[in-house]
Amino acid sequence: MGASSSVSEKSIHQFTVKDSSGKDVNLSNYQGKVLLVVNVASKCGFTESNYTQLTELYRRYKDSGFEILAFPCNQFLNQEPGTSQEAHQFACTRFKAEYPVFHKVRVNGENAAPVYKFLKASKPGLLGSRIKWNFTKFLVGKDGRVIDRYGPTTPPLSIEKDIKKALGEA
Questions:
Q1: Which of 75, 22, 87, 17 is nearest to 51 (CA)?
Q2: Is 44 one of the annotated active-site residues of the chain?
Q3: pLDDT, tens digit, for every residue of 104-113?
């Protein structure tokens, strides 16, 4: 679709996003790290299992060069209704998330965040360039290129072997 032709960036490191308080964060800060980029929501049926497993993965691999980048999104049945700061507080308080939870974004449509246009163009899913639902996950290599895409029903712990391989631990 249109997203793939309008994306000229070759690496996630070329993007700047906003943190939960609205400050710019240059994703080049994550060069050399393996990333798992996830669109999250606090009121989704997948919330409990995904956040719990994301926190576990982060604890296991954060010292090996692994980072999770969580982007709250309210595009799917209004399952992230609060502010970006409320989404950040929810993840950090309820699920002890120590990884960054960024500003709320749109992941589909004309107003999708540029970083999501890049991710979707790099690894289309079953719905082409669209994100199906909350907790779609993108594994990004140390070079900033997308390695793989996982659907909302894929438990984070089930992709541990792919993370280890990307880290060079497999």
A1: 87
A2: yes
A3: 999 999 999 9
